[in-house]
């Protein structure tokens, strides 16, 4: 069995940074080290572990099979070390350390999101905290909370995963949109006629929302699938596809005339947004403090006119 020492932990942090950056060259700025130094450190780590962790050359940087396994173990180890440090702070009654927060993409324009207010409240308390924020899809956020890379995440999670706790924070409204170049943008059709034209159009969906979106439209198959909202907005603006977007996110393009909301009263989705944490794990003080502030800020939400349905 390999005995870990302080130098090994440092080398594992270097390894994790290299993988995160996608290679030795890209990691130089993050590590504040030259490529020769990083190469020496990796060679030392591989010698300590007795396995080849990565390959690099003209084909680019990639992990070996053993490297993938070591990287996953490294992330678990570093997460455990961070949690230990936070738990140790309880003894001195001080909240400090790193808080790893995950958020689904494109919520910056949502006035109902409590994250900005929570962050301001949390930071204003004077905690000695370094905040890491990761933007990802629902599946990515759930995976990272499960394996300990994230302490908590906020988003829409259509399918609940065993091992996670879900608590609803607020709801997000989505509507169906077309771009300026789409035939429906300038169409005068309404009611049943408009719905018929929608049913014959190409539909782009979010992968994690496709069942709800296609069912509401009465369409059996999507013409395009994306894993984030920005990609969906690009397809809609192209004029080639229709798709559901959060009302708050689409408002900026509706205002300029680059998008139009269709059948706003009939085609409207309401999605619950939850905060997820790992089940069965006692939360460290830093996480408890953030959740307390999140709970307090979730009940203090404005109700701007922009959240109302757009004209059809």
Automatic annotation (TrEMBL):
Residue ranges of every copy of the HTH lysR-type domain listed in the record: 7-64
InterPro entries documented for this protein: LysR_HTH_N (IPR000847), LysR_subst-bd (IPR005119), WH-like_DNA-bd_sf (IPR036388), WH_DNA-bd_sf (IPR036390)
The keyword Transcription appears for this protein: yes
One Pfam family it belongs to: HTH_1
UniProt cross-references to SUPFAM superfamilies, sorted A to Z: Periplasmic binding protein-like II, Winged helix' DNA-binding domain
Family designation: Belongs to the LysR transcriptional regulatory family.
Name the UniProt record assigns to this protein: LysR family transcriptional regulator
């Amino acid at each position: 069995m390999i005995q870990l020492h302080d130098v090994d932990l440092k080398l594992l942090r270097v390894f994790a940074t290299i993988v995160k950056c996608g290679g030795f060259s890209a990691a130089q700025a993050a590590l504040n080290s030259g490529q020769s130094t990083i190469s020496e450190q990796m060679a030392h780590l591989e010698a300590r572990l007795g396995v080849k962790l990565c390959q690099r050359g003209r084909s680019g940087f990639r992990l070996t099979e053993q490297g993938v396994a070591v990287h996953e173990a490294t992330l678990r180890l570093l997460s455990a070390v961070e949690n230990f440090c936070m738990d140790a702070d309880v003894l001195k009654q001080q909240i400090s350390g790193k808080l790893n927060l995950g958020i689904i993409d494109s919520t910056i324009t949502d006035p109902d999101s409590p994250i900005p207010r929570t962050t301001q409240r949390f930071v204003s308390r004077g905690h000695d905290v370094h905040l890491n924020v990761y933007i990802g899809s629902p599946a990515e956020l759930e995976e990272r909370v499960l394996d300990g890379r994230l302490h908590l995440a906020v988003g829409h999670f259509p399918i609940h995963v065993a091992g996670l706790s879900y608590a609803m924070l607020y709801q997000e409204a989505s509507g169906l949109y077309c771009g300026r170049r789409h035939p429906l943008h300038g169409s005068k059709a309404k009611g049943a006629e408009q719905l018929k034209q929608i049913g014959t159009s190409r539909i782009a969906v979010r992968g994690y929302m496709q069942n709800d979106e296609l069912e509401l439209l009465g369409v059996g198959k999507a013409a395009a699938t994306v894993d984030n909202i920005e990609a969906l907005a690009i397809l809609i603006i192209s004029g080639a596809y229709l798709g559901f977007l959060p009302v708050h996110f689409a408002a900026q393009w509706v205002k300029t005339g680059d998008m139009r909301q269709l059948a706003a009263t009939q085609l409207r989705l309401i999605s619950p947004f939850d905060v997820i944490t790992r089940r069965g794990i006692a939360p460290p003080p830093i996480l408890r403090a953030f959740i307390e502030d999140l709970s307090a800020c979730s009940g203090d939400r404005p109700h701007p006119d922009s959240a109302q349905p757009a004209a059809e």
